[in-house]
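Q: I'm writing up a methods section and want to include an example of the input and output format. Could you take the sequence below and give the corresponding predicted C-alpha cells, formatted cleanly so I can copy it straight into the document?
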Amino acid sequence: MQDSNQALKVCEYYLKPGFLYLTREETVVYTVLGSCVAVCLWDRQNRIGAMNHFLYPRTPDPAQATTRYGNVAVLTLIRLMLAEGVAREGLEGQIFGGGTQGTSRPEEDIGPQNVQVARKILRQQGIPITSEDVGGGKGRKLIYNTGSNEAVVLKVDRLREEDWYPYRLRGS
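A: Here is the clean output for your methods example:
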C-alpha cells in the first residue's frame, strides 16, 4: 500500500517533430503542433498508447522516407503497435493539429493535407478515429496520457520558443 505522502510517479516525454513514441507504461506525452499533425493510437485491451508527430503529408522521394512524413509516420506507428502484439481490431485513433498557414492557395497549405493523409491511412487500415481536433488558425499544445487515452488540447495564438522545446534552459 502506498504512503499517502508519496506522489504517484507518471513518466513524462516531450515528443519532437519527426519522432514516434510507444510505451506500455503510463506516460504523459507532450508536443506542440502548428501545421504538423499528431496521431495517437491506443489499444484498450492492453492499455498501450503511442503517438507520432509529422511535418509533411507524404515523402516526395521514397529513398528519403522518414517519419517526418505522414504517409510513413502513420504506417510506422501502426506497425509498431502490431509488433507489440496488439490486434488491429482493438486499435483506435485520434488526430490533432493540421492548422492552416494562411497561404493564399489551398494546395500549398500543408496542415489540411497532413490531416487528409492521417485520416486516409487510418480508414484504409480499418482503425476508427474516436476524436480529432484539427484545422483552424491556432497552434496547439497536445498532452496525451498513454495509459488512459485521454488527450488535452490547449489552443494558442502564437507559439514561443519554449513551447517548442520546453526542456531547453533559458538563456542557452
